[in-house]
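pasting for ref
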Amino acid sequence: MATDFDVIIIGSGFGATVLAIDQSAKGKSVLILERGVWWSTPELTAENPLNPYLKSQPTAQPVQYWPRPDHRPGLIDFLSVVQANGPLGDFQNFANDVSDFFTGRERPQPLYRYSTFAEADIVTASGVGGGSLIYSNVTLEPFFDGGSSSYPVMDPWPTSARLSQADYVNGLNWMTNKRGKPNKVVTKYPQPVPVVNDSDPRLLGRSRFLRDASASPNLRADLKAQIAEPWKPLDLQVAEADPANEGTNKNYCERQGRCFLGCLPGARHTLSKALLKNIPDLVAQKRVFVRPLAQVDFIEPIPEGYKVHYDGLEEDGGSFQPTAKTVILAAGCLGSTELLLRSQAKTNGQLTISGKIGENFSTNGDFSGFIVVDRDKLQYPIYATRGPINTSHVTFRDGKLLTNVEDAGIPSMFASLTEKTLEMLAKNSKADLVGLLGLLWDKAQLPDYSDPNGMQTEAEMLMNVCWFNIMGVDDALGKFSLDQGRLNLTFKQKIADHPTFQRAETILREMATAMNGTYRAFPTWSGLEPFISRRIVVTHPLGGCPIGGSSTDGVVNANGQVFNTVTGSQTVHPGLYVADGSIIPGPLAVNPTLTIVSAALRIAASIP
């Protein structure tokens, strides 16, 4: 009996896009199932492949547009596209029902999923293009130790899970050829000449601040000695203008500082663009299908392959059960892990999964904090709202603890809230949740025209603030499970006590001191009393379906194939793969995009 498709791919993020392009190029029919909608810019950009594609489809393709106001009212737009889980999500759903009843207008589909667990919150994307819709464009491989010719973060991994330098070369080539050439964006405006090595006034303020802080003679000597990689610009998947050849410029980075909200100029190399760039003919020939708003329930083994149960926009009332010889889970760390757990439960043991399912969850050492400099001590304005979200980084190494520090941008719509939150944190060691929410509205009155700080632009509000994103090495001790149908996350040890977070905080404190500034913790790390104690906000979740040498130490093998025994075997379910961040068995201490792409390419090469 023939199946409906050769391949079904669940998700449309980095791993999914790699496999979709690869499998369609091999002549296979591919169905891509994505739980979110298409997201696009409403601006008249020079190149925007989404709108022509969406208009050409015979059936309606749901599309929504980025939240846009770059000031305080824009927070309402932002909050409307955030979907929470747990008790907060239940309250949110109730409020939405009330709003729908009185306004007659449904709440928009979420762009962000905010999953709250006992010790950590996890932020993920929802939309065609997956994480590329809200990430910071960084293309970066883990720290490589030339002395040992290895990636230290991979030392604890099973040998089969480790990636090589050649794997990363393949990943970078794919990113360049299938998406676009990475660019370094650390200056206030496009530069035809390289940035010089000392403090350069052309640098964005926060790029320059990280460079100066990490190289300061006032930085604590032991930390300075631990700098394994000095300051350098990041490779970013954004289009940069070429001042020397303006005739070829199309969309390019305008330094609007809102990458994770959606790029209005359309300069980012999103995966939704990559899909349409690489498979338009196959889409037109009805060989590749993208189904948005497809909420997958579970996967069922059948003699010919697999049946995927999901609810969507189909004409038969929304319930569709397509079949395929090959199914590739690429729904992200949370999504793929939950799908395998639920499929195992709903198929009455037909889909046997390794006992390692749900394990090896890693926070990737995600941590963030602020440095605030008194304005009378400020050597140059930082302007946290300008530039791409991340522009440059410095790597510290203390034995096994790697710490990657990146400067970070704060979108303008968050400027007022950030400014007042930092003021509150300066007055109190703890922030009050009710007080923080009240800050959204505390400036409703007319400004004091005699006060120079009373009529600031959003950029001026944060001219003396530098925000940092940090990644490090935890022990991947988190475990997912299903609790009454909901995904649950627990840790074998209290995650906030791990040394990687104390080290990150120490580095920020010492850099603040070196630059005559003050360190301020991220509010969730300070504690939102009386409701929340210290907790981690994770933006780079990894693990849950880790690679292993057998079902004893992994859920999938090096080629992403799902083991079909609980323990002790290397046999697999034919045609069932996982290809996303969930297969990474530990922290990377850098942005994981390039690693996920490189691992997905290895999986793609193994599929006939």
